[in-house]
Structure formats: C-alpha cells, structure tokens
C-alpha cells in the first residue's frame, strides 16, 4: 500500500484513483470530439465539445479540492488533543 494507507483505506484510495482515471478518459474523449468537430467544420460539435471539456475540468477541480480538504481535516484530527 502507498505510504500512510492501511488495508482499510486502500479501498477508498483505489476508488479515488479510478474516479480520477475516469475523468481523465472523459477529457480525452472531449478533446477527440473537439478535434472531430474542427476537422468536420461543425460549430455545434465544437461548441458542445468545449462545454463538455469545461465541465470535465470543473469536476476534476472539485474532486482534487475535496481530496485536499479531506487531507486537511484528517491532519487536524491528529493534531487536536
């Protein structure tokens, strides 16, 4: 297991890694759709792909931010007497 992760936490760790992998795959799909729209010259596909890509980045930001917030909260619980 990665440093600081026990057997009980490994399931949550794997879930978070798979979630991030899913978002990365969504970003790749959005980029491919965007490329296809540019090649085809279809403004609707280009617009939709850009909105989809933006939404993916918003979800990735929220996922990373909540992960950071959980780490800060867990660090505080160890510091509090």
State the separation between the terminal residues, measured CA to CA: 28 Å
Which assembly state applies to the chains in this document? Answer: single chain
How many strand segments?
Answer: 0
Radius of gyration (CA) equals 18 Å
Percentage beta strand: under 5%
Q: Return the average pLDDT rounded to an integer.
A: 84
Shape: elongated
Give the tally of structural domains: 1
Q: What structural category arises from helix and sheet content?
A: mainly alpha
The string of secondary-structure elements, in order, is HH
- Level of helix content? over 70%
| Largest sheet geometry | none
Number of helical elements: 2
Low-confidence stretches: none
Element layout with pairings:
Blueprint: H1 7-40, H2 43-79
Helix pairs in contact: 1-2
Please, could you describe this protein's structure?
88% of the residues lie in helices and 0% in strands. It is built from two helices and no strands. The chain has one domain (11-75). With 81 residues, it is an all-alpha fold.
């Amino acid at each position: 297991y990665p440093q600081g992760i026990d057997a009980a936490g490994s399931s949550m760790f794997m879930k978070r890694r798979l979630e991030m992998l899913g978002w990365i795959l969504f970003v790749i799909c959005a980029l491919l759709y965007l490329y296809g729209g540019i090649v085809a010259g279809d403004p609707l596909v280009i617009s939709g792909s850009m909105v989809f890509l933006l939404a993916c980045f918003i979800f990735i930001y929220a996922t990373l931010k909540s992960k950071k917030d959980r780490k800060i909260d867990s660090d505080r619980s160890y510091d509090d007497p």
